[in-house]
Amino acid sequence: MSLFDQIKGFIFDVDGVITDTARFHSQAWHAIADQVGTPWSDDLANRLRGIDRMESLEIILQAGGKASAYTKAQKEELATKKNEHYKELIAGLTPDDILPGIREFLTDLKEHGYQMSIASASHNAPAVLHSLGLDEFFPKIVDPGTLSQGKPEPEIFLKAAAILDLEPRQCVGIEDAVAGIEAIDAAGELSIGIGDKEALRAATMVFPSTSQLSLPNISKQLLGVA
Ligand code: BG6
Ligand code: MG
User: Fold this and answer.
1) CA 51/CA 48 separation, integer angstroms
2) pLDDT tens by residue, 173-223
3) What is the DSSP string of 107-118?
């Protein structure tokens, strides 16, 4: 039996995998960084990928040497401001914003009887999936409000496997974030990175673009690691 034969479920991150909303999170955090006086950089933007809202704010404040400059209430205000900005940026999302190959991949998975779930740290993910017209593929998703630990801890990917009634080793996780790949690996699932091969080198396999995500391509890569 090949590694591929044991796979029964696919667990997707949303921002940066299903649609390019990672850039909207970045844009909204960039504005907050400007407000609190933290210099923005690509490195900082990448460190925020996959990280939940309050933890992202803490990273931005720390990067600017302002870790203890804000009260809890002020931090809540900053996080709310970022979220309002982000919601404005995603207001115009339509099915045209689905990343290349994703709808075809989801359709193929469904036709082949695979189970599918979502492991996004974003409280906005259900609204994003709705705007993209992809709800039908994901009746069972993890509510990030139920988590005690964010990525890179494995909890979200373990919960996603559990709601599909699968063992972690029966699941593939798909992520664009380093923290996300770490979470999938720690959960004992098979990890697929979307993006830079070097940055995502901990993944079982990496595709530079979602357009390469397909069952034949995954199966081919797995023959190489089996
Ligand atoms: C993740 C994004 O999917 O969700 C992060 O990669 C974001 O950038 C996190 O901070 C939480 O999102 P939200 O919408 O709940 O603030
Ligand atoms: Mg992501």
Assistant:
1) 5
2) 999 999 999 999 999 999 999 999 999 999 999 999 999 999 999 999 988
3) HHHHHTT-EEEE
Cis peptide leading into residue 126 (ω within 30°):
no
pTM equals 0.95
Catalytic residue list contains 15: yes
List strands edge to edge, sheet with 9-12: 115-118, 9-12, 171-175, 190-194, 205-207
CB 177 within 8 A of CB 16: yes
Q: Residues with beta carbon inside 6 Å of ligand 1?
A: 14-15, 22, 25, 48-53, 56, 83, 120-124
Domains and CATH numbers, the chain: 9-19+98-222 (3.40.50.1000), 22-90 (1.10.150.240)
Question: 75 alpha carbon to ligand 2 midpoint, in Å?
Answer: 23
CA angle 151, 17, 85 (to 5 degrees): 75
Tell me the C-alpha distance between 211 and 101, whole Å.
Answer: 4
Cα–Cα distance, 17 to 23 (Å, whole number): 12
